Amino acid sequence: MNATYDGPRLALDFDALAHNWRTVCAAGMGQPVGAVVKNDAYGLGVAAVVPRLWALGCREFWVATLHEALAVRHSLRDAAAGAARILVLNGLAGTRPEDFAAQGLTPVLTGPHELAPLAGYAARTGARLPVAVHLDTGLTRLGFGAAQLPALQPQGALWRDAQVTHWVTHLGRFHDPEAPQCLLQRERFVEWTRQLPAALRSIATSSSVFAGPGWHFDHARVGSALWGVPASQRATPMLRPVASLHAPVLRVADVPAGTEVGYAGSYTTPGPRRIATVALGYGDGLPFSLVNRGYLVLAGRHVPIVGGVAMGMVAVDVSACAPGEVRPGMWAEVYGAQQSVQALAAAAGVAANVLLALSARLAPRSAAWQEEAPEVVA
Amino acid sequence: MNATYDGPRLALDFDALAHNWRTVCAAGMGQPVGAVVKNDAYGLGVAAVVPRLWALGCREFWVATLHEALAVRHSLRDAAAGAARILVLNGLAGTRPEDFAAQGLTPVLTGPHELAPLAGYAARTGARLPVAVHLDTGLTRLGFGAAQLPALQPQGALWRDAQVTHWVTHLGRFHDPEAPQCLLQRERFVEWTRQLPAALRSIATSSSVFAGPGWHFDHARVGSALWGVPASQRATPMLRPVASLHAPVLRVADVPAGTEVGYAGSYTTPGPRRIATVALGYGDGLPFSLVNRGYLVLAGRHVPIVGGVAMGMVAVDVSACAPGEVRPGMWAEVYGAQQSVQALAAAAGVAANVLLALSARLAPRSAAWQEEAPEVVA
C-alpha cells in the first residue's frame, strides 16, 4: 500500500539538532544559550523542535510575537512549561503587561514608548514586570538609542516599574562579526551597558557565538546555527542540517522538440525531452525567482528546473535519467543530504532562512507524516 | 486598552467575495461554477472562505491535495459537507481509492499510471469510483496526452473501473485566452473530448470565463477571480479585492545622515531621516526581492521600503510624515484599499497570487483577530 504523495514533506533530523545544540554550547564556553524559535522555529515547527531543545537542556526561548510565545508554552508539558523563560522580541506591542505576567513572558522593550504601559501595570498591581531591553547600537530597527539611555538609568521610571533581566542588541552585519560596523556596535554595547545596572548582556547570535570570547558576554541567543544553517562568512564549525524537504513526482512525460513547458511559454524544449512534474510550488515556499534556474535532486542526479514556479507545481528536465527511472511517486530532494538549502537559496537569490521560514505551513502535516514513517523513494 | 500589534493581520471582505462570485456566475452564463480553493484558498483560509462560498450557492470545490480536501470537508457542517463535491487536482497520488470513496472525493487523474489503482479498487469492491480526468492539451504538466487517449475510450479499463464526471484541461497562457497557443489548446480539447464519452468539459478558469461563450463549455472552475485578483490581460470586469493585509509599526526613530538601516548596509540614509520599523517580513510572505523597492501605506502616504526584508521586519522611510504622525501601534497597509496586491507584486517581480498564497500562515490568527474586531489605526 502506497503512502499518499501529493505534496512536499519536511523531515527533521533530531540527532543533528542535538549535535548543533552541543556545538553551540561548546562555542559559548559556558554562558547560557537561548534558542531563537520565532516564525514557528524558522519554519521547522515549534511543536517538534521546542520539546527536544528542552530535553537537551535549553531553558530559554526567544520569539517575535505573543502568539508565538503561547505556542512555545503549549509545546511544553506541565513543569517544563512553567520553568521555561520565554522572551518576546517585538516587545509588549500593545499587550497589557498583566497578560505577559500571567503567562510568565518577558517582553524585550523596543523603545521608550513601552515605558508608560509598565508604569500603569506597576501602579495597578504594585509589581515590577521582568523585562529585557533592546538597545539600538547600529541596526536601526528596534530599541533605545544613545539619546534615550537616560531613561534606562537606575533612578528612572524603568527600574521603578520593571526589573531588567537582559540588555539585548543585534548586529547589522550579523554574518560578519569582524566587520568594522560590528566592532563599533560592540563598542557601543560595552560602553552603554557599563553605565547601566547589571543584567545579562546578550549580543552573540549564530555567527558571533563562534567568533571567540570577545563576543560572548553573558549570554547567547541562537537560531540559524541550531538548524544547521551557517550564518557566517568565516569558517563555520561543523553544523549539521536539521531540515530536509522532499516533493513527489506527479507525472512524467516524454515530449517532442518545441513543446512549451509551464505557464506563458517560459520554457520551450530545444529537443525531445523527458519532463517530470513535481508537486512543489511558490505556495510551499519555493521562490518564484527559480524560472529556468536551480535544481532538484532525483534518482541521485541534479535535474534542472525548467519553466516557472506555479502555486503547487514545478517541472524538471529528467532527460538524463534512463527511461522508466523516474516515476510518479518518487520523491525529489528539494534540499537535504544531496543539495544544501544554501545552494538552492543561492540559485533563487534569497537567504537560506527564506527557504526554511516558508516551510512553516508544511510542518504540521509533515509531523504526522513522519510518525507514519513512509518509505521515501528517491 | 490596546489590542496587540506585534505582527501582520489579514482581513477578508466577504461582501466583495459575494460580489465576485455573482460576477463570475453571470459571466459563465449559467454553467456550473466550481471554486478553486487549493493552498488554503490561495492563502485566504479555507475555514473562512468555503462556508461562505457554500452559502452563496457554490457546490463544487477544487483542491490540490487530499489534506486540503479534508480541510474543505471539515469547514462545512453536516449536510453541507456531504453534499459538496470536492475534486483533487493532484489525483489519487498513491492514496487508496477506498479513501477517496469513503470521503466522497473525486480525484482528477493525472495520467495512465493512475488506472491500475482504480482497477484494484473495482476488483476489491465491485464499485466504480467517480473520477475526473486531466487532459494535457499543451501545458505539459498533468494529464493524458494525445498518445494516451485510447486508454480513455469507452471500451477501455477506465470506464470499466471508474465513472468519469469531468474532462479537465488547463491553459498554458491562462491570462490570455486569445493567444494562438490557447486557441490550439481549446481546439485539441474539443477534438479529443468529441471522441470520448460525455462528461462535463472544464477548461474555463478566472480569465477565460470572461472571454465569452466560446470558452464556457459545461463548467468553469475559478480561483483568482473570486478573490478579486484579475488573471487577465484583457479588460477585466469589476472584481473587488477580498483580502487586505496590514502590519503594525513597532518603532519610529529619527536618525542622522549616514545611518545604516537593516542588515548588511543595504541602505544608508542620505540625510536625516525618520524610519519606521514594521512587523512584517519574508516569513510572513513579503518577497525577499523588495530591497529598497516598493511601498507600504502609512497615514495615507505611500512610504518607501528602505533596506532589505528580514524574517519578521522591514523598514520604511516616513520622513514625509509630520513628527509624531507615525507612531508605534499604527497599522501600515501592505495591500488593500490604497495599494493593490498587484502593485506590490509588480514591485517585487512576482505574481499577485504569490503574495496571497504566502499569507496562508496568517489566516488562522487573523480569523481570531477579526472576531475581536480591534480598531485598525492607519
UniProtKB/TrEMBL annotation, chains A, B:
Magnesium keyword on record: no
InterPro entries (alphabetical): Ala_racemase, Ala_racemase/Decarboxylase_C, Ala_racemase_C, Ala_racemase_N, PLP-binding_barrel
Residue(s) carrying N6-(pyridoxal phosphate)lysine: 38
This protein's record includes keyword Isomerase: yes
GO biological process, one term: D-alanine biosynthetic process
GO molecular function: alanine racemase activity; pyridoxal phosphate binding
Annotated residues for binding of substrate: 141, 311
Reported cofactor(s): pyridoxal 5'-phosphate
Keywords: Isomerase, Pyridoxal phosphate
SUPFAM superfamilies the UniProt entry points to: Alanine racemase C-terminal domain-like, PLP-binding barrel
GO cellular component: cytosol
Pfam families tied to this protein: Ala_racemase_C, Ala_racemase_N
Record-annotated Alanine racemase C-terminal domain positions: 242-368
Protein name: Alanine racemase
Organism: Paenacidovorax caeni
